[in-house]
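One thing: mind reviewing this one?
=====
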Amino acid sequence: LLVERVGTSLMKLDSELSKLVVMVADGGTIGPELVEQAVGRGSEAQAWAVQEAVLAAIGSGRPGEAVAKVRELVDLSGQAEVLVGYFVADLMRKFCIAIMLRRSGLSDANIAKHEQMKLWGPRQRLFFQALDRLNSRSVGLLFDRMVEMDHRNKTGLGEPLRNLECFCALLTDEIAPGHSRRS
């Protein structure tokens, strides 16, 4: 779990392990609970955790669930709203790339392995379920809305968390189950 969270750099592992040793009583053990509590995820793992949660919520087809998940990520998980917004924007970027790769004839299996995608496990299934309900026009429009939301956030137009919630509700409506729009 420690390697999963910080990577294989011996310096980072040594630093995190030293921190954990100080946190346990003499003769105590360092368990997964302590690692989860004390060691932050790396930025890529953190991004995928957010994206996977958002994918699951938008895949429900219920905008309220997507809004609640975004609120939970910010309020309960302690993720910065700017960071959650960035990870959702990155998800939209991945949808755009996947649409282009599909157009070029790549299979979903090859798209998942692509260096800009890195999809595996549950996130791969969730991602392609959402992608199957989108077409290139809707992905382009959603990406434009995401850029507009980022601009609004940076120019003081609206509250960033509220803007993100509205975007996720819009995305959920577009990806609602039963609306296959594959291009």
